[in-house]
């Protein structure tokens, strides 16, 4: 689940985060995003990562990291402990995306969530024309070995937020490095964004 | 590489103890490795476990074996003594030179034996603090230790938070479970059931409570290992024989191994110390001074912390260590946590565990770079 064009994604995420914010990156990988945000936004960062090799890399970078699982270990944090929580490219690999999202908006004032958009036209075309599960740069696993359990589309995500009464504040378009205010479902986003990126919150 | 030093502390005013009473002019035996830098910000305090001592990285004077953490502490080791000034004191109540039951009570010129006051983990930490003051260190860069050493680390974080820049508590707990207490009680009872214990007054006797202490060590040793490790190391293998003896000799290798662990232990450890130190561990509850609230206990802690547990440790299991992590998380502290996968049980922190070493090294070095 490596991030493609990491720094491009990082830049967009960094734009959403004010200086000196406290941030938890859930599924923080080797800690590069936290390191980036520490460098450019002077954040007070924490990570959570399930893969021990990556936990070691975080420790060596001086990043505070919990070896843990988004599905079970977010309960340990008190309400609104962080200004921001980040979940990049991990939602689809959790056992229960719904409870993970609820936990994220509970432990932080705002949550930044990104995920591969299964509604992208190429995926639709691949299914339609080849009758095979899509494999692309962003979705690099074959169906039988993928860690991804719950694929969703941008529209599915929006519906889930509505169901959970989670407010979507902003949306991101990573290919154009663009952020904009969210104003409901949008045909272009759901077809042409390979990745859904949203800033959400719940009081 | 290092020499054992002994310093007399609490010369002006006595060290008041949790259980009432006090110790004055008590001795602390300690070793140091590396050099304290000019800024005095590179010190690492290593806290030993129940049967450990100050010989963390130098050969033990009695057993002649390598220091108990010689794989971790030393030049170019995970705790690099080229870079850090490592201090390792023998706890009070111990038997390797610090004031404890086998040392002479200055008041009457006799061994303390069971006149030694019952001490707590907090008392040990207060005594260590006097040593740190004596060494002229205002802020310790890192306090670390496993098992009881981890309890001392937690107590440091609670009692003297402003003196601790970072901390690595390993395979430990905020207090002992009923099971932990039960195992320690078994050990104490086996010592006291030995007629040679003589109510603790055996220092001038030909007969020492070696059997009792040896059985205590055997029981404890089982708790340090995992079922898997015992099984893969010994299984039901027989010791130097091809068939069962139909006797009570050590037929199985595991029996022979445990007997060896017990016999060798009595050469280097004092039975009364074993009673006092296990008691301190059982009494330990880092929240006790704060009405049972762990949040209160650590409310002034600002240190950067790495908690470590081992998958096969059933004595201080991951769940106990995660409880500590949860408290630190609740306080928004800079806490990291790693669970090392191993079948070596509680003893893992003393063994060759490369992933454990890597975690400690990564944490300590990056924390030092960001000082």
Question: What can you tell me about this protein's structure?
Answer:
The complex is a heterodimer of chains A (203) and B (371). By secondary structure, chain A is an alpha/beta fold. Chain A has one domain (6-118, 150-201): Rossmann fold (3-Layer(aba) Sandwich). Chain A has helices at 6-16, 32-41, 52-60, 70-73, 97-107, 121-130, 154-163, 187-192, and strands spanning 22-26, 44-49, 64-67, 82-88, 108-116, 167-173, 178-181, 195-201. In chain A, helix 2 (32-41) links the parallel strand 1 (22-26) and strand 2 (44-49). The two termini of chain A are 31 Å apart. With 371 residues, chain B is α/β, with parallel strands linked by helices. Chain B has two domains: 5-177 and 285-369, 3-Layer(aba) Sandwich (Rossmann fold), CATH 3.40.50; 180-278, Orthogonal Bundle (Rna Polymerase Sigma Factor, Chain: A). Chain B is built from ten helices and 14 strands. In chain B, the strands form four sheets. Chain B has an eight-stranded mixed beta sheet, sandwiched between helices. Chain B has a two-stranded antiparallel sheet with strand order 2-3. A two-stranded parallel ribbon of chain B has the order 6-7. The longest helix of chain B is centred in the C-terminal third of the chain and has 16 residues, at 253-268. Chain B is globular, with a radius of gyration of 20 Å. Classes of the chains: A alpha/beta (203), B alpha/beta (371).
